[in-house]
Design brief:
60s Ribosomal Protein L30, Chain: A; Reactive intermediate/imine deaminase; YjgF/YER057c/UK114; 6-stranded mixed β-sheet; 128 residues; alpha+beta; 6 strands; globular; single chain; 2 helices; RidA
């Protein structure tokens, strides 16, 4: 099976040996997205809600590039620097999904994240 590298200007460019996303068969795997504005390259700072919104918009940019929506997402992984922020992150995250068809998910508190952000999210989606 071949893998196809996905690149879009609607998500931050990779700054290392990784791709924004990879398609294998009918599955899309995204790299973890943090709150970097793809247009300016600047980190979005402010509230955890603003960070989460930028992260979800970056994911949307990747999904758009391959012609799918959040309805195609089957699994998400959320990494938080502080689990006490979970409710705020979950509120923003929840606006992107239909509760009845929401994907499987794990949420993990970690010691640090790239650029010392507060949240990083990756997704796996089915291409249809």
């Amino acid at each position: 099976m071949q893998k196809k590298i996905i690149t879009t200007k609607n998500a931050p460019a990779p700054i290392g040996p990784y791709s924004q996303a990879v398609v294998v068969g009918n599955m899309l795997y995204t790299s973890g997205q943090i709150a970097i504005n793809p247009e300016s390259g600047e980190l979005v700072s402010g509230s955890i809600e603003e960070e989460t919104t930028r992260v979800m918009q970056n994911i949307k940019g990747i999904l758009d590039e391959v012609g799918v929506t959040f309805e195609n997402v089957v699994k998400t992984s959320i990494f938080l620097s502080d689990m006490n922020q979970f409710t705020k992150v979950n509120t923003v995250y929840g606006t992107y999904f239909n509760e009845e068809t929401a994907p499987a998910r794990e949420t993990v508190e970690v010691a640090n994240l790239p650029k010392f952000v507060n949240v990083e999210i990756s997704v796996i989606a089915i291409l249809e």
